[in-house]
Write a structure and sequence with these properties.
53% of the residues lie in helices and 8% in strands. It is of the alpha+beta class. The strands form 3 sheets. A 5-stranded mixed β-sheet has the order 7-6-10-8-9. The chain has a 3-stranded mixed β-sheet with strand order 1-4-3. A two-stranded antiparallel sheet has the order 2-5. The two termini are 33 Å apart. 38% of the residues are buried.
């Protein structure tokens, strides 16, 4: 279990003593620095005066009647659309997995199909399971139990007993995992014994609303702690009722910096998705959320080159015209036009376009988009907005995918904001790359619409209530969106959409605990010697320990060799002296200074102000316990060196869509 010191610190932060505890301690290389998470709305709010901020907060608490009416008007429009003419046929095509089939598919998606394979060895099972926390492992065990039971019902031979799978692995786990598990249990016990006044969040006692978003501890383990606290009668009486306002989220930033989804290699992202699925499942089990995954059947080939085409197919075709594009070119064109002409239009997204003009515009775009220039001069922003919403809802599979659409919808039934954000963060990581990139482009546009609220009269609730049906209601997956009390369902569905818009930057990051688990998984895949003869194992461990001690003695402040792969400098290197305050941005600054002084600095690389004209580069860690990782400029390099001493550091140009320095 990848807990360690940072996990203990995060658990203490959960107790509400975060600020006092941080001030009382001396800073250490592994301690987190608390920094606020800057969302687009936080930046926009900073530009308003206090009076306007108070007024906006009142409007933010609940959607008004116009918002609710717009929600159901949008639902009616979707249900009357041409895509719903064959709704009954679509429901027959969309089916839930047979008993046992869903568990088998889950194990495959989580990278754990070897647990039910007779050919796999114990060493393979141990490498997979050795990174899991206790609650995550229990979720895996429940899926194995369910799978075994379904095989017995179908009179098929069951795989090995689940106890035979888990028991020997716990006996052979690496000693570090056993030690970290003891640390985690001690930390959880200390939180449970903390006085109630210390664990009650500050904003529950009347202070300005703030939320600590902890990512060093697995989300399912945080849920275990919260559920224990929620059973205390004092906690229930002191907990303030949620009033609908969204708090300022404070995300503790660890010394290794923030990792975004575009910063990891595809191989590591595959492992992130597998571990995220396990943690999501454990979290759903704890919150008693029954989430059933759906499959979509084969669909007819669309006649249109733009509408009704799978996202992956659209991107494959678009990348032939524009390599490295991450979102469909048609959607880019719509969003670009709306950002220029639509964000200031009053009632944008809510005011419907002319049906005849929308139909004509769609036909024109389908005919000419890829073959001739398209003039947007005479296009109405409301018509373009209608085409955007139609493009999203006419995708053959939901943008949020058929597998996870119901899970996204289930987030509305969770009470605690942090647990909602935990669920959404994991779900975003589980989306296929085309879906995740397209959703991010959409949310960035919606955030810009909200930021121009003074001109377009569209606040966060208004945008959320309009867009929620377009994302959560799809002809390929049966939905409970329109069941029950109208206002309650509209508000809950819009609330999930509101969280996606408001906290999108936070949701597109990889939690620290998942990064730790990925590193541990990569390390354990190279540590199979622990299953050999005891004497060989002890000898290898002694060699490893001795070499590590010698390295520490000789390099208290080590000097790292950094490879340079920028422009003509593909085979160059540079030396960088590490200290406790060295950051990735410092190393890049030194590289730029050396490049400026270098006689090989070619013509056109120097600006008048003395800076280098091609500073669009980043520092990567490659190899060791990670595949490839684009580093946050705030990464403390001495901590990184201690965390992954076997990895190389490489300076190279950032690919399209990577982080901005």
């Amino acid at each position: 279990m990848p807990w360690g010191k940072s996990g203990s610190a995060a658990l203490l932060l959960l107790s509400g003593r975060a600020i006092a505890w941080a001030k009382a301690r001396n800073p250490s290389p592994t301690e987190m620095s608390v920094e606020p998470w800057a969302s687009p709305q936080d930046q926009a709010a900073a530009e308003h005066d206090a009076a306007h901020a108070a007024s906006s907060e009142d409007q933010e608490r609940r959607p008004d009647k116009l918002c609710v009416d717009s929600f159901w008007s949008e639902v009616e429009t979707i249900q009357q659309g041409s895509g719903y003419a064959d709704l009954d046929c679509t429901k027959r095509e969309s089916r839930q997995s047979e008993e046992g089939e869903q568990e088998e598919q889950w194990l495959a998606d989580a990278g754990l199909s070897t647990l039910i394979s007779e050919d796999s060895e114990d060493v393979e099972k141990a490498v997979l399971l050795s990174t899991l926390t206790r609650t995550q492992a229990e979720a895996v065990q429940r899926r194995l139990d369910s799978y075994t039971l379904s095989l017995r019902k179908r009179n098929k031979p069951a795989p090995r007993d689940v106890r035979d799978i888990f028991h020997p692995i716990t006996q052979t786990l690496h000693p570090e995992s056993q030690h970290s598990e003891d640390t985690a249990q001690t930390s959880m016990a200390s939180v449970a014994k903390t006085p109630l006044s210390a664990v009650t969040p500050e904003h529950h006692r009347g202070a300005p609303k703030e939320e600590f978003f902890i990512t060093d501890v697995a989300y399912c383990e945080q849920a275990v702690i919260f559920l224990k606290q929620a059973k205390l009668p004092q906690y229930t009486s002191q907990r303030r009722k949620e009033d609908g306002t969204l708090p300022r989220v404070i995300c503790p930033k660890c010394r290794l910096g923030v990792t975004r989804v575009q910063d990891l290699s595809q191989a590591d992202m595959k492992k992130v998705r597998q571990l995220a699925l396990i943690d999501l499942t454990a979290l759903c089990d704890l919150l008693e959320l029954e989430v059933k995954r759906h499959k979509t059947g084969k669909r007819r080939i669309p006649e249109s080159p733009l509408y009704g085409v799978p996202l992956a197919t659209l991107l494959e075709n678009d990348q032939k015209l524009k390599p490295n594009t991450t979102t469909p070119l048609f959607m880019q064109a719509l969003l670009s036009f709306l950002e220029k002409k639509g964000v200031d239009s009053e009632g944008i997204l809510r005011v419907p376009g002319s049906q005849s003009r929308v139909k004509q515009l769609q036909q024109t775009l389908e005919t000419n988009f890829y073959t001739a220039p398209v003039s947007w001069d005479e296009v109405s922003p409301n018509d373009a907005a209608a085409l955007l919403k139609k493009f999203i809802r006419e995708l053959p599979a939901p943008l949020l995918t058929a597998e996870y659409l119901n899970t996204f919808s289930a987030v509305r039934d969770i009470t605690e904001l942090k647990q909602k954000l935990h669920m959404l963060n994991l779900l975003i990581l589980l989306l296929p790359e085309p879906n995740r990139n397209t959703l991010k482009a959409l949310l960035e546009f919606l955030s810009k619409v909200v930021s121009r609220e003074k001109r377009n009269r569209m606040n966060l609730w208004a945008v959320a209530t309009i867009m929620a049906p377009n994302l959560f209601l799809h002809k390929a997956v049966p939905s409970r969106l329109t069941e029950g009390a109208e206002k309650g369902h509209a508000e809950k569905a819009a609330d999930v959409m509101r969280l996606l818009i408001r906290y999108q930057d936070l949701l597109w990051t990889i939690p620290n605990f998942l990064m730790s688990q990925v590193r541990k998984l990569n390390e354990n895949s190279h540590r199979r010697y622990q299953f050999y003869d005891r004497r060989i194992k002890n000898l290898l461990r002694k060699i490893h320990t001795d070499s590590r001690e010698k390295t520490d003695k000789n390099t208290s402040e080590p000097c790292r060799t950094v490879k340079i792969q920028v422009g003509d400098l593909v085979s160059s290197t540079m030396e960088f002296q590490l200290n406790v305050n060295s950051r990735a941005s410092d190393l890049l600054a030194q590289f730029q200074r050396q490049s400026l002084r270098s006689p090989d600095n070619g013509k056109g690389k120097m600006r008048r102000n003395g800076s280098v004209a091609n500073p669009d580069c980043a520092l990567y860690e490659v190899g060791g316990n990670i595949g490839e990782h684009c580093l946050d400029p705030d990464t403390h390099l001495l901590d990184l060196n201690n965390s992954n001493s076997g990895g190389e550091w490489v300076i190279r140009m950032k690919p399209n869509g990577s982080r901005q320095l």
